[in-house]
Structure formats: C-alpha cells, structure tokens
Amino acid sequence: MIQDQGFFSKNVLLEGKSAVVTGSSRGIGRAIALELARQGCDVLVNYSRNQSAATEVQQEIIQQGRKSIIFQADVGNLSHHQPLIEAAIDAFGKVDLLVNNAGITIISDVLAESEQDYDTVMNVNLKGPHFLTQRCANYMIEEKIKGCIIYTLSISDTLASDNRAAYCMSKAGLEMGMKVYAGRLIEKGIKVNGVEVGVTNTDLARVRIPDYIEASEKGYITMFRPGEPEDVANAVIAGIKIYDTGVMIPCTGGVMTPLLNLRNMTSLNSNQTE
Asked: Residue range 203-229: average pLDDT?
C-alpha cells in the first residue's frame, strides 16, 4: 500500500479538499478563498463584521460548483476558535487546509502607542493565529489528516515602521511561529508555510502605494508594480503545493531585493583622474 503523502506528494491536487480562510470577506483573504475554490476546495469564509461581503464571496464560490459557508468569528478571541473549526467540519466533513490571513493594523507613533492598541493588534495578528493553528493542528493529528497550514505574513516582519510597531512585531513573531509549527508537525505529515506579502492593493495598504512607486522610480527599492490580492492567492497555492515546509514564499514584486541604484545621482566617470 502506498503511504498517503498528503500535501508532500509530488502532485498536490486540491480537488475535494476543504479549507478555512480567516479574514476572507475582502481583500487578500477574498482572493485566496476564491482561488482555493477554483482549485477544487470547499471553503469556509470567515468574517468579523462585514457579513454582506462574506456572503458575496460565498456565492461566488458556490457558482464555481464548490460548497461554502460563512462564519463570523474574531480570530483574536480564542473562544471563537473551536466553533469556527467545528462549523467547517459540520459543513464539509473535515478540514484539510487552514489559511491564517486575518490581520489588522493601528497607526500610532511608537512613542505614543497605547497598551490597548498594542493588545488589539497582537491578539488578532499573533496570539489568535498561534492558538488557532494549535487547535487545528491537534484536530488534524487526531483525525490523521495530513493537512496544510499557511500564514499570510508581510515584509513588515523585516522592515520596521515606527508608526506601526505592534503590526511589525506581530508579523515577525508570526513568522517564527510558522517555523516552530513546521518543525513540530512535519513528523505528522502536516505542511506549514508562509507567504511574504509586499505592498498590495487592499484597503489596508492602498494608501501606501504612492510612496512605494516613488521610491521605486528613484531607485531606492525595486518593484515592477504594486501587488494585487490575486498575486498573494497564487503565492498561497505555491505554498500549499511546494515540496518544502517552514519556508516563506515571496510575493513582494522585488521590494525585498537589496538595491542601491540612485538614478538621480550625478553621473560619475570612473576613468577621470585628478
């Protein structure tokens, strides 16, 4: 009998799999949910406040011939985790995939950041995904499901912003959490990867796009174009299908490529002599 290699098989197919995507009523999460459905997954669409947007995503998934339910849950509230997972199991019979996508940011000077704002960001971005992963992983182990867990992370886990300190710290911590779970779960055949997201055209980051375009034009960074949610969705699929575990799939448009090309610098002739 050939051993079930799950998401480590040479040809990973998503047809018939079921997924939970947190924060999937809009933006990146929406694109991920829709792409998973196109690949053959049934999808639980999780939302926190915008039920109408979640319902629209659900209907698009159903139109593709897949099953879908919507479920309201605050990822930062640990008491919501078990009902979230159980809803997917009740609807689809199992959970093969968890995409930790929900995230928030609160703009505040690091010298004035309040404890409440810090806790709010950390609960949703770091504490919540950590314990949701723990709960989902234990479910997969108990049910002998060789599943896959994906984190949408950020260039902000490396590049510091002094007006988004908690956000940057949460993403840095989440990257390490991804690696910790990857190491712990590989013996169970469960794959865990992350996607490093750059500046992307979403409600959360859209206001920052002009600054990145200007920096790119001046040669301070390299970026062909700002990202779209669908770019991240494609990277998530790559993270699911890649043979590796505990790694970051880049989705930054080149922003993280080291570059010092000051295009406005006066031309220098290296052959000049004094």
From this structure: 81
Structure tokens at 198: 């750059």
Percent of the chain with pLDDT over 90: 77
Name the phi and psi angles at 68, rounded to 5: -155, 145
C-alpha to C-alpha distance for 102 and 166, rounded to whole angstroms: 15
Domain spanning 13-205+228-251, CATH class: alpha beta
The encoded tokens of residue 54 equal 């979640």
Does the pLDDT value for residue 274 go beyond 80?
no
Count of CB atoms within 10 A of residue 65's CB? Answer: 8
Among 139, 167, 181, 212, the active-site one is 167
Catalytic, 47? Answer no
3-state secondary structure 185-235: HHHHCCEEEEEEECCECCCCCHHHHHHHHHHHHHCCCCCCCCECHHHHHHH
